[in-house]
Design goal:
Blueprint lengths: L10 H13 L2 H8 L3 H15 L4 E2 L6 E2 L1 H28 L3 E7 H18 L4 E7 L12 E6 L7 E14 L1 H6 L16 E2 L9 H7 L12 E2 L2 H9 L5 E4 H9 L4 E2 L5 E11 L5 H22 L10
Parallel strand pairs: 3-4, 3-5, 7-8
Antiparallel strand pairs: 1-2, 5-11, 6-9, 6-10, 6-11
Helix pairs in contact: 1-2, 1-3, 2-3, 5-9
């Protein structure tokens, strides 16, 4: 029986050697492996002593491999690559019936989650896990299969499928509309309680941009409370606290249910939209989800593109 552990240096020294060679730096290798620089140096010395040859030329800056080191590290890197590939194959085989979706918190709660029961019914063999992002873009990190993102669909290193172009319109609860003065033109909203949501993504429209779009000058601070996410802002609108900027992906269901109504018939159609973002590699699970969510968006398209419902003051 081959006793590999007697014929190769300790694994820690091999990892240190490969990282130092790749970065041409003990310091950056130490940062990557979360150890000290001296630990990297000691580990490589251990490998050299085991093999009986010098692998690193420590006199050069940056450090470089000796001829023997180059040959050994090339084999080492190839072995690590194969191990990583096999590990990924095994991991994906284990979770072949699991799909993980990343989504913005508001889109996840108000658009995707209510529709997922349809996917479960059509694909009972696939379990869908959801990961929400509090601010910023939904991630496509390792372990995430699909990211539902708002934007223009031009993110590098991935492919995207447009679900629908976004549009926004001021919305409020029917109770709020009945209790407050009618809104006949954009400037009238300056006299209303405006609900604001903070966002790190500047492509998300705020009230300043909305008034600028209609050429309404703003003098001083806009009225109304501020919330640190879109989800809380929409909850405040549902409870009758004021007027929010409603998006297709976060307000359409509430508008259809008459829980919210538009307060002004002036939707702004954006160049950005909601996209399903995936890796370029083919994945049968992901394709099934993309086909389903695209069918959902197409089926809803006509309804989503219709002008939002008119508030009581306009009837």
């Amino acid at each position: 029986m081959m006793r590999y552990w007697k014929r190769i240096p300790p694994l820690k020294s091999l990892l240190a050697l490969e990282a130092a060679a790749r970065h041409a730096s003990f310091t950056r290798a130490a940062d990557e492996l979360n150890v000290s620089q001296s630990a990297i140096s000691h580990a490589i010395t251990t490998a050299e002593a085991f093999l009986g040859t010098q692998l690193i030329d420590r006199t050069s800056r940056p450090i470089s491999l000796t001829p023997e080191g180059k040959a050994y590290v090339a084999t080492l890197a190839s072995c690590f690559t194969q191990l990583a590939a096999e590990a990924e194959t095994l991991r994906r085989r284990k979770v072949r019936n699991v799909l993980t979706i990343s989504c913005n918190l508001a889109y996840g709660n108000y658009w995707l989650l209510p529709r997922l029961k349809g996917f479960h019914a059509a694909h009972p063999d696939l379990q869908v896990n959801m990961v929400t992002t509090y601010q910023g873009l939904a991630s496509l990190d390792e372990g995430i299969d699909v990211a539902i993102r708002f934007g223009r669909g031009d993110w590098p290193g991935c492919t995207s499928r447009l679900l629908f172009s976004e549009r926004i319109v001021p919305v409020a609860s029917p109770d709020y509309v009945e209790r407050n003065a009618p809104v006949r033109q954009p400037a009238d909203l300056l006299d209303h309680v405006l609900l604001h949501a903070l966002s790190v993504e500047k492509s998300w429209y705020d009230w300043q941009q909305w008034f600028a779009h209609f050429g309404v000058p703003i003098h001083g601070v806009l009225p109304g409370p501020t919330f640190d996410n879109h989800l809380l802002m929409m909850q405040a609108a549902l409870s009758g606290r004021g007027v929010a900027l409603g998006w297709i992906g976060t307000a359409s269901d509430f508008l259809c249910q008459r829980l919210l109504v538009k307060v002004l018939d002036a939707p702004i159609v954006l160049q950005e939209g909601l996209h399903a973002v995936v890796r370029p590699q083919r994945d049968e699970r992901v394709e099934r989800f993309l086909d389903w969510i695209t069918d959902q968006a197409i089926a809803e398209k006509d309804a989503l593109e219709e002008p939002f419902r008119v508030g009581p003051q306009d009837t």
